[in-house]
Amino acid sequence: MTDLKNFFKQHFGSWPVHRVQAPGRLELLGNHTDYNRGLVLSLAVDRNLEMASAPRKDGKIELVSSAFPEKERFACDRIEKNDSAAWAGYVKGVLLQLRQRRVNFTGFNAAIRSTVPLGAGMSSSAALEVATALTIRRLFPFTLSPGGIATPPKRNSRGELPPLSKPEKLALAGVCRNAESEFVGVNCGLLDQISCLFGKASHLIEIDCQHLTVEHLPLPPGVGVIVCDSGVKHELADGAYNALRRECESAARALGAASLRAVDAARLQANKTRLTEREYQCAYHVIGENHRVVCAGRALWDGDLAQLGEYLFESHASSRDFFKNSCPELDLLVDLARAQPGCLGARLSGGGFGGATINLVRESEAERFSQEIATKYEEQTGRKLSPSRCRLVDGAG
């Protein structure tokens, strides 16, 4: 926090009034199932984005980030895209969504520091969106309700607001998802934003994206989560992500379903001739992912770590062979992980087309795993690899 406060003061000449944090997330299982109203297992991790803020009186909003050289400054009643500071689009999108819901805000300064890797599949974008929404709540208290806004929350004697209720968290997740979809242009689901808000230390997050329910499952002791960043950066706004969503939605329509969540494997096979080959491949992957999430939950409760890990390997194979959102570097990382003692399972995590793999590894083998996979990956690709251990943490606040 001290570094963030100093960063704020360096740019704005005064100390911040508020500070919020939002964690990155990893997707354990459920690749591209969220916008298909499916099931996901995810986790919030100890890579955080922090935002410090203070109000200002001239109606201007000024943003600075330690990750980007470009500052952004604009009037709070004139929020528009600026390609020269594209990173600020995630903030602006949230501001516009809140304004559509009759949340009133005026000018403010905000400084951002983050340890969530960019383009590595840990959703730095959702962390920034959620931090923005929480910052506005701290500066200009509001309560979202299904009909718009309700009575604003009151601060206690220490100036603190009450914690967000579960319905409020879901409403904020929807605001942030819409910001990314409508302003930035990535037509994503709710996985990232819900994971960021609903994280729980030492627990996985089980999300039903059709019924908008969230449950927590304990991660068994003795299991570590290791992320391997391939070094291949993905840009989901370039159209590949949206193209996959269109194929999934087209497949659902051809099958007479509201979404692929409503289709099981038997129905898919019986109606395969209604689909193009690409529609079938996408549907096959999503339906299989939903099934794997259900089975993984059972394996967790049974303490069957070997079976849990196998679902991760199966998921990656499906992403590689059917959904086709992997890349050679991610495939290599999964193959190298499978060969390491103590590795229970591995797969790509996130949108794909680059980014990182998530690896479940027995803690007793974690150090050896990291050393071996880094050495072999560099030998075969020439790319440096720095595997990072992640802890499961509480959500944004």
Name its key features.
seven-stranded mixed beta sheet; Alpha-Beta Plaits; alpha+beta; Ribosomal Protein S5, domain 2; 397 residues; four-stranded antiparallel beta sheet; 2 domains
Summarize the structure in words.
The chain has 2 domains: 2-215, Ribosomal Protein S5, domain 2 (2-Layer Sandwich), CATH 3.30.230.10; 219-390, Alpha-Beta Plaits (2-Layer Sandwich). It is 40% helix and 23% strand. The chain has 11 helices and 13 strands. The protein has helices spanning 2-12, 89-100, 124-139, 166-184, 191-198, 240-254, 265-270, 277-302, 305-323, 328-338, 366-381, and strands at 18-29, 39-55, 60-65, 68-75, 108-114, 143-145, 148-150, 203-208, 213-218, 223-229, 343-349, 356-362, 388-390. The strands form 3 sheets. Strands 1, 2, 3, 4, 5, 8 and 9 form a 7-stranded mixed β-sheet that branches. Strands 11-12-10-13 form a 4-stranded antiparallel β-sheet. α2 packs across α4 and α10 crosses α11. The mean pLDDT is 93.
